[in-house]
Amino acid sequence: MIGDIRTGASFYHCISYCLEDKKELTEEQKSALSQRDKVQHKNRAEVLEYNLCFGDKTELASQFREVRMLNRRIKNPVFHISLRLAPGDELTRNQLIEIGRACASEFGIDDHQYVCVLHKDTREQHIHIAAKRVGFDGKVASDSQSYKRMADLCRRLEKQYGLTEVLSPRKFLSTEERKLPRHDIRKERLKEDIRQTLQSAHSYDDFKIKMERLGYKLIKARGIAFVDSKKVRIKGSEVGFPLRKIESITSAQSKLADTPRPITSWLEIQAGNLDRRNTANAFNVFPAATPREAYNSLDALLSPERERDEDVPYEISGRRKKKKRRRRLSL
Description:
Layout: E1 2-8, H1 11-19, H2 27-37, E2 45-51, H3 57-68, E3 78-84, H4 93-106, E4 114-119, E5 126-132, H5 146-161, H6 175-178, H7 185-198, H8 204-213, E6 217-220, E7 224-227, E8 233-235, H9 243-257, H10 266-270, H11 276-279, H12 291-302, H13 314-317
Antiparallel strand pairs: 1-3, 2-4, 3-5, 4-5, 6-7, 7-8
């Protein structure tokens, strides 16, 4: 389980994000993402619990602001909390409500106004809590050491509900745990999306359009970067697909599309079902290559580039840390 907690100033914007679909996604993008991930991007929010409040986003924001007037000195009266389960973990609706209540109790807002919402637009279950830090007595819930408290809460909930144990935020890990490689789900998903898109993209513009349909924004300069729906920016080189590789693949796909006949399988040619002379031009993308070699070359292009040894921390790779040579001054 991964938890996140933030403070803010606007009740309305926090509640709107929790209760509504993502505004930056078009209906076409919602449909494409839902089919790809088998999730629900349209009507993604389900309210699990109202605590001392009720109504739609406008009514909730108005109720929160009324109580907030009991303490006008606080600049950030909003708590926005999110809890995400690890891949493969799943809880019932009642268990998710219990987790929301446990989180509210941990941060001292169990007797404050808050709304707990389940989002259905990701493969992993995750909930959001939009809460008011100011209580009915005018006192403010503390956000001191909030990341450490959240990490401790997640570890307790994992044990209580038999969930997958996830590493705590890096700042609070031990020296040994910091050496463990992290599995970044976001990068893995981007890598697979790029690979799947490149298989059918016949030009860079075609590749860009198809990636934008999946909810990515492309930034092309000397290299290429992808910005997902969460506004997270990832370089193409970080997932094994730098700009030069993407352009090479789209160029190869374009040449294959211009051939008079599509590339046919090596087995069909060997079986004598097709005339070798008619299929010879289909492989001019890779000069002096047999059909099998043409396939292998394209597959090799579509494979993400491996990390260089220099990019992997020496604690993980087992390599010795390189020592800088000291220059000797000649007299």
